[in-house]
Amino acid sequence: MRKSTYLYSKENRELYHEHLKDISSDSCHFSRQIPLFLERVDKNDMNFFARHLVHCDKCQNEIRKEEQKRKSFINLVPYEKMSREQLLSLGPELDELAEIIFKKEGVEQLKLKAESYRARRQFVYDMFISPFYSKTFLKGLVLALFSFSFLYFISH
Amino acid sequence: VEKVIKRQLEATAKNLYPFAYALCLDELMASQLVIDGLSRFAIEFEQAPCDENKLETYKSLYLLAKHRHHHTSIKSSKVFSSLSFLGRATLFLIEKEKWMIDDVAYVCTEESSHIRLAIHEARGILSPIQESII
Questions:
Q1: Could you report the per-residue pLDDT of B69-124, keeping only the tens digit for each?
Q2: pLDDT tens digits, residue range A51-61?
Q3: CA geometry: angle at A128 spanning A124 and A134, to 5°?
Q4: pTM above 0.90?
Q5: Which of A11, A46, B42, B67 has its CA 20 to 30 A from that of A33?
Q6: Do A87 and B13 touch (CB under 8 A)?
Q7: Does the ipTM surpass 0.85?
Q8: Binding-site residues on chain A for chain B (CB distance < 8 A)
Q9: What is the spatial distance between Cα B21 and Cα A120, in angstroms, rounded to a whole number?
């Protein structure tokens, strides 16, 4: 662990002035927050720093440098895509795996299908065959047809 | 249904392969790792991998690779191979896949602070090499 030093004490006066020179000449005091700022996805989290960046030329230069650095990192990280031959060679193993998943997931899907079929059959039964619903439904249908034909004859 | 599952598996294998390659830096080992990772996922969760359980698939692959990492040695001349296992995983997911640190922490089963440290260290190792390239 690096030890921190108290810059405002008398013993560290020279160090303090050196530090001040560093800050005033090379970079802005806030530029050390740039890596943290670039790491954030939501830049509004660091609202103060975002506003500071608009006015500070030193920070803008630093941020440009840091971004360039990060872009060049990307080239050092390999991104190997799977070739068609490799995918074909994995074919039998993927088939086996699909079969295993199908046995577990397929049964669930069949159960769902059966349930939906049962629900549809129940709906048809309720509407047309069961005495209470069918009577209500048919009465409604007859009433709708009657009113439609009545309105049709009036309008023509 | 079986065909749909196979298509899903193929798509996931394609997506996982670059990550597997970054972890072991060998084509044959990477494809084997993908298959084993998918099998492990299928057995554990009893479903086909899709976008909803993307993190889980990456996690099962990462954990398998971590186990194997102790038994295998990487013979690669690439600069990337000089990084630690965690460094390779985090740098790949953040720089290439543009993932958030919390997701990377979940996949690598580490705390976010450890992930930040791993990225910082990895960048520190790569930066002198990168400067020499520039």
A1: 877 766 666 777 888 889 889 988 988 888 888 889 999 998 888 898 888 888 88
A2: 777 777 888 88
A3: 130
A4: no
A5: A11
A6: yes
A7: no
A8: 39, 41, 69-70, 72-74, 76-82, 86-87, 89-90, 93-95, 97-102, 104-106, 109
A9: 50
